[in-house]
């Protein structure tokens, strides 16, 4: 079978689904290709947080505000419940740390947090262990169900005439330095514009073209709890997050990526928990960095580490029956997403590598779709 489209979007997770939706709204023809109909990826195992405050410049702050407004109206636009709500995000400060020093680390954000005492923190979140913390930083935070939201984007995309095929992209169709489409195991699809929104696979797809993107991936392990009598009233995370530091260090090791080997850096644990509207919880998270996408993960070991860390901060959650999962999460060392044309290649673009994906990808997808279709018409 050979089909032609104005745009092909590779990757049907959150970023691919929102971009395909924004493209189809402009009146062009769009094919969305996704290899896993169950979306067993970073979208499914996300905390679902919308970090309004995670902006260090006026430009990123404006994008965050656009993301906030986007989500506030999204359930109505998609005619589906994304479970959007606003919650208190409590960033816990270890009992051995000086709260004012930790607070100072957040001064480079445009939006500054509130510093709460242990008593004030426990009033907002009674499940916190007061003996484990010296205080918390509080932010106003958004939250959605990322899987339901992605599925809602996909359904809205289909209603507008888009097509979704669950096929694994095997190679890109190239001629005269121009990408003309893609081949899956089953078929070939042609388009003047192919956009890669495939998370960590984006790196692998561009490598087929001889392009090494500064886009990497972490292995993330979380525990999901589907049933409990617990009522967690806030989202809890660690104020001294190690993930961004780990990503920056990993980005310096370009020569070691894509080689079979041991972990590039020691694994970290960032203690966190969130409860969704339907009651299920996500507890995490262990982060590991291996230089290949086929590493064997010790899920039992990661589950033990997560439960031990949760036991210190939220002891009533530590022994809940749940399942430990692993997924790959794309990142760039400078926390700037890759959006647009890559190198000297024609007909192919990237839309991947986001930090705070759920908040920032929608408004940027809207702008990118407008840019692409305007140039397409011209």
Provide key terms for this protein.
single chain, FAD/NAD(P)-binding domain, 8-stranded mixed β-sheet, 5-stranded mixed β-sheet, alpha/beta, 378 residues, D-Amino Acid Oxidase, Chain A, domain 2, 2 domains
Characterization of the model:
With 378 residues, the chain is an alpha/beta fold. It folds into two domains: 2-82 and 145-214 and 335-377, FAD/NAD(P)-binding domain, CATH 3.50.50; 85-143 and 216-331, 2-Layer Sandwich (D-Amino Acid Oxidase, Chain A, domain 2), CATH 3.30.9. Helices cover 29% and strands 31% of the residues. The strands form three sheets. Strands 1, 2, 7, 8, 9, 10, 16 and 17 form an eight-stranded mixed sheet that branches. Strand 1 (2-10), helix 1 and strand 2 (30-33) form a beta-alpha-beta unit. Helix 1 (14-24) packs parallel to helix 6 (146-159), helix 1 (14-24) runs parallel beside helix 10 and helix 2 (58-72) packs across helix 10 (357-377). The longest helix has 21 residues, at 357-377. The chain is globular.
Question: What would you say about this model in short?
Answer:
With 378 residues, the protein is α/β, with parallel strands linked by helices. The chain is built from 10 helices and 17 strands. The chain folds into 2 domains: 2-82 and 145-214 and 335-377, FAD/NAD(P)-binding domain (3-Layer(bba) Sandwich); 85-143 and 216-331, D-Amino Acid Oxidase, subunit A, domain 2 (D-Amino Acid Oxidase, Chain A, domain 2, 2-Layer Sandwich), CATH 3.30.9.
